[in-house]
């Protein structure tokens, strides 16, 4: 396999079970050695201690000392990373991952989600240049995922490179700007999300009821059926596709726009006619559809 992760990107690795995702991560970290080929991380060898010190890692199977408390655990991880333990910094880190109320509890009493949060805190120690996270939100509740997602986005905004392996495709889609699809140890597809999803220049728009259909058509909007409401399509004057039974009730349209400037110009014309924008979405396949299409066949377990 051949894979390049741009510095400063949020990169997701997805694929079926047994595709080799975790093995690849272990080779990137120098935990296992490839029998052939070369692995370069942050411009050097993953076996170089100076390189490894710049990497934060959250493994898929996280084993934590149950009799310890989280501050003691972070202090030990800091020493292993060659860092001087800083109780105040560790307290801020625990607060950041949502564990400030659990510092006096033993780790053995933590839930799975709390353990994942502590593992993330350990990965963030020392302000790493590269974060390698294997299933980081596994076991975390929906609100916790929002918090973790915010933390990861903050790190990427700081210039940190994020390498994420997760079977939660929706999370990958929300966090990552680039993905690679791995199957049987081979990279089948790789690139920016919008490129893989083949998202073209078409947008789906919903306007509030009462919009002037003729004015919207003149602005470049084509009325379409709203599948969520069971709408059926039929031919409209001028060749447009319109919901049978009346397009005004649904208010769902599509518009082709080569770039955001063209899109906004069309929306300005629509608003000038009195139309009120309720929803705007770029059309394209989601990550699950991209994965199934690349690997082949439904029933693929990511």
From TrEMBL:
InterPro entries membership: AAA+_ATPase (IPR003593), ABC_transporter-like_ATP-bd (IPR003439), ABC_transporter-like_CS (IPR017871), P-loop_NTPase (IPR027417)
Superkingdom, taxonomy of origin: Bacteria
Alphabetized Pfam families for the sequence: ABC_tran
Annotated Gene3D superfamilies: P-loop containing nucleotide triphosphate hydrolases
GO MF assignments: ATP binding; ATP hydrolysis activity
Domain ABC transporter intervals: 1-209
Keywords: ATP-binding, Nucleotide-binding, Transport
Signal peptide: none
Stored PROSITE patterns: ABC_TRANSPORTER_1, ABC_TRANSPORTER_2
Family stated for the protein in its record: Belongs to the ABC transporter superfamily.
PANTHER family attached to this UniProt entry: ABC TRANSPORTER, ATP-BINDING PROTEIN (PTHR43335)
The protein's name: ABC transporter ATP-binding protein
Organism of derivation: Corallococcus coralloides (strain ATCC 25202 / DSM 2259 / NBRC 100086 / M2)
